[in-house]
Design a protein that fits this description.
It is a single chain. Helix content is about 75%, strand content about 0%. The chain contains twelve helices and no strands. The chain is globular. The termini are close together. The N terminus is likely disordered.
Length: about 350
């Protein structure tokens, strides 16, 4: 039977941080825990990561998709076919001629996809983190260095790439369809159906290698810069045993800006390659490096940074919302787990 004093201590402001921020690796590999309990805890850890990532994906699309549409349209217009003079002009023309629906064009793919992307991204990062901890013989409570977090992010990017690419492809196909032109695809589902019908499942991986150059190092920078940003933001004000949600919001915004700045030229290349025809015989670009060479020769260095303004306006609030939503969901899960654990002890 648990004493009343011990229960009160669990409810005190200081105590929860000892429990809520524990890494699930401690629970998975603690001596004296049966294999069935370890399996159950691994399953619960996966459920937490996947559900929190899913909620983060919903927040990402709700906040960021209009800016993403503007960014893609700015990136995909060529010097021979200039429709938008600036980021604001693109936003205004899209809204004027297509309404709010135009800004959320192709949103079903990223909505469903971002739920899958973020769920997979955070799950694979948690798995990669445990792998790196084993390689470096770290305990779960030991803080990883930025280099170790970078490595874990790189591994998670390699795993999540195969979820990310089809989602991005369908989104880009829809966003690149401009008003006044005959639309090839009615919606993302129709786009997916037509691509699979004509090119098979491999057709959904058009631009895979272009995306790999952007996404894999991007994941590494993403998680490493978030760790650095949390430390930086936490250095101001009152010291805490864990960052507040406000600090997570600020750190997420900083890491979003850093990540997109570091990988943006490859995002331009990836979007051009994926917006190209699904039929290989009708494509403008033979691959990643041919696309890069074409942009450099026809548009110069600035061609690799088309749509950057829209991207940065989107990147900061979107990634702030992603990490805040994810952290809040994880903490809520762990509060529920802790209460359940306390009730079990009390009943016993």
């Amino acid at each position: 039977m648990v004493s009343r004093e011990s229960l009160e201590s669990l409810e005190s402001p200081e105590c929860p941080t000892k429990y809520l921020e524990r890494d699930s690796t401690d629970l998975h590999e603690s001596p004296g825990i049966s294999r069935n309990d370890q399996r159950r805890r691994r399953l619960m850890s996966a459920v937490k990561e996947l559900s929190a990532g899913t909620l983060a994906g919903i927040a990402q699309v709700a906040v960021g998709h209009p800016f993403d549409t503007v960014k893609v349209r700015m990136q995909c217009q060529t010097p021979n076919e200039v429709i938008f003079r600036s980021t604001f002009d693109c936003f205004w023309k899209t809204f004027r001629y297509e309404g709010g629906k135009g800004l959320y064009k192709g949103a079903w793919s990223p909505l469903l996809g971002s739920m899958a992307q973020n769920a997979a991204g955070f799950y694979f990062f948690a798995w990669s983190k445990r792998l790196v901890q084993r390689i470096y013989t770290l305990k779960a409570k030991d803080k990883m260095t930025l280099g170790q977090t970078f490595t874990a992010g790189w591994l998670s990017g390699c795993c999540a790439l195969f979820v990310e690419t089809p989602v991005d492809l369908l989104k880009v196909k829809m966003q690149a369809q401009l008003y006044g032109k005959k639309a090839e695809y009615r919606n993302v589902f129709h786009a997916g159906y037509k691509i699979v019908q004509t090119r098979g499942i491999p057709g959904l991986y058009q631009g895979l290698w272009s995306n790999a150059w952007r996404f894999v190092p991007g994941r590494a920078v993403y998680f490493a810069s978030y760790q650095w940003s949390v430390d930086f933001v936490s250095s101001f004000g009152k010291k805490r045993s864990r960052p507040s949600l406000r600090q997570c919001f600020a750190a997420g915004g900083i890491c979003g800006g850093i990540t997109w700045l570091s990988t943006y030229p490859f995002d331009v290349i990836r979007n051009r390659v994926q917006a190209d025809s699904a039929d290989p015989l009708k494509r403008k670009y033979r691959g990643t490096w041919h696309c890069a060479a074409e942009i450099a020769s026809r548009e110069g260095f600035s061609g690799f940074f088309k749509g950057l303004t829209a991207c940065m306006i989107r990147a900061v609030p979107v990634n702030a919302c992603i990490f805040t939503t994810y952290t809040a969901a994880i903490r809520k899960w762990e509060e529920v787990e802790e209460r359940s654990r306390v009730n079990t002890y009390t009943d016993g």
